[in-house]
Amino acid sequence: MRELLRVPVGETVDLSAYDTAATPAGPRDKAAGRAETARMARPLAALQERLWAASTAGDRRRVLLVLQGMDTSGKGGTVKQVTGLFNPSGCRIQAFKAPTPQELAHSFLWRIRKALPRPGEIGVFDRSHYEDVLIARVRGLAPRAEIEDRYARINDFERSLAEDGVTVIKCFLHISYDTQRRRLLKRLDNPDKRWKFDPSDIDERARWPAYQEAYEIALRRCAAPYAPWYLIPADHKWYRDWAVSRLLLEHLRELDPRYPAADFDVEECRARLLKQGDP
Amino acid sequence: MRELLRVPVGETVDLSAYDTAATPAGPRDKAAGRAETARMARPLAALQERLWAASTAGDRRRVLLVLQGMDTSGKGGTVKQVTGLFNPSGCRIQAFKAPTPQELAHSFLWRIRKALPRPGEIGVFDRSHYEDVLIARVRGLAPRAEIEDRYARINDFERSLAEDGVTVIKCFLHISYDTQRRRLLKRLDNPDKRWKFDPSDIDERARWPAYQEAYEIALRRCAAPYAPWYLIPADHKWYRDWAVSRLLLEHLRELDPRYPAADFDVEECRARLLKQGDP
Predict the structure, then answer these.
(1) Does A277 reach chain B within 8 Å, measured CB to CB?
(2) Distance in Å from the first CA to the final CA of chain A
(3) ipTM of this complex prediction, to 2 decimal places
(4) Which member of B83, B189, B278 has the closest CB to residue A88?
């Protein structure tokens, strides 16, 4: 399934050529999609436990899921639904907002490095270092020469992560312009969802073509064999959750982490334990 | 239900007087217990979302669940089962191991403060600052005078948390000596669980009475109205999970967090959104 969603390395990306409501290789409808995603909970948690167990014996491998997409594309929903399939104690989740003054005083990768998963963990980024070539590019938040420089720095950074045992899985949640309007209106119409709405969302939406172009550039320049970008059609939430879960499952199966063997004498421990009398 | 499990403030605690297999106020059996816990998922997640939403409008309140108990008492299992009922992005989970040299160079509360939940979050500690009056007392890891001093420092610390909007919920997962042996043997017998076993667990087990006494002292000195200790009979995993979930639910209902009202003109935003044409 991975091959179908993977952005080809080194090729131009035309986001308008991708159907945001498509369901490639997916279940046939919402009910089947939700059921299939739920069925992945057990194997995902089992693989996560093995990844964690292996780390206690020195295995440095871990996973980093990077979620990017326009406002309302479902980054938060994906964290809730997909990360919710794992044991929360082995997950390290970070949502990146506009950088603080302290963060701005450092390199754009500084806050990213601090939030990386430790060996054995599943890391999840809701937004990421890609914002520094997305909103930063669209809104001119840094000199153009610096932004141009960042793509190479991102590639170097992600290559070093891969060399250090991090499986980097980058997902662009692709929604249509109409889907965004529908979802923003829903936030306005439901008093319990208004806290998610910010009037500035409408101004950002006015820059839709500039954002799509910034994404196309980022996907083209930073799709790498060691850190692939996946393009997830995300108009259907059930498909989005199924696809991201499935990507994680395929990558974790490929990692095939193993429970470590005991580094102590099992029989001797059993005997000592059975010999212990009343406290 | 809270009252039944709450350790009385200022009274002597005799752990041997509590039945570790009891199920006070609980469902009648495992099937009913698991079902009732699952039914709490929806109200817990709904209250958590409201707590988070309120924090975006300046509400500083949050929850800190502290889990303590002997080896195999189910601290990790509780994190998995109970925290798994929440949206993982709003949870901040920290497992405390033996302190690092860097941590030892600071006050024992230093690493605790760094791991506290932020406003709107559900924090979970798997072990905590209580280790500094438990294993530290039993193993003499600090001068006795310093350990005696720590109870008051813990009380001051927890009072300051309460004053800063943190609902502190401390759970002692109480298991029997026999249950611990059974669970340790299970770890030895199952190759996939051996990574959880450490031969030093047997040495710690030999100090069972000293640990029970250290817990009795900690519960007596640090049970406070602003930071209650709850004594959870934990021989039955289903009861343990039900009881901790139920405690969280009762505390969250009492907090009664509210969605913030919109601080912008909803009608004006709706009109602007509908006016936006094609990108």
Answers:
(1) no
(2) 56
(3) 0.94
(4) B83
